[in-house]
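Re: How this chain folds, sequence and tokenised backbone to follow
How to read it: Take the token row as a discrete description of the fold.
Start of record: The labelled sequence and token lines come straight after this line.
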Amino acid sequence: MKEKLEYKILKYLSNNENGEFLDISHLSENNKLLKDKISDFKKREFLKTRLYPPNVSTSGGLVVSASIKPPKCLITSQGNEYLLKIEKDFNIGKVENKTINYNLKDSNVGQINQDSESSNNDSKIEINTYDTKKPIKKTIAARIFSLITENKLISGLIIGLIFEESIFGKITELIKNLIE
């Protein structure tokens, strides 16, 4: 499964997710197959895409043509959920042993106070990572509360009804008169 283009695309986008659209043209030599997969994922709302600017040529007149590269992609939450489902179904990604090699001397991530001896040596860190992304199930009360707090119209109507009842009390009188 790790060799399938579908998995490669989603895994690459998930691992490199930084809120920006990413170039994934290096994942496959077959641009048509890659564009078809991207189109399929976009329809299923697993990705968002951004096209490259068109190619412009001025030799023999102005010629504008679409870029031959597949569009840049950004994984969505549904794409991440689908990737987790794939990994769960095929027992991929449960526990991975990762080794991170970095060279402090060439690092541009941040400034590190260090002596000259350690700056010339590569450092190695071994990490066991565990898959901790589990969907959280909400209770009915939590769903109703989130619906009320996220929807301004519903929360406004509820606040208006409470205000009207506390100040005027006309609604309860109206209901009593209708019942009698």
Summary: The beta strands are 47-50, 55-57, 63-65, 72-75, 95-103, 122-130. Residues 140-179 form one domain.
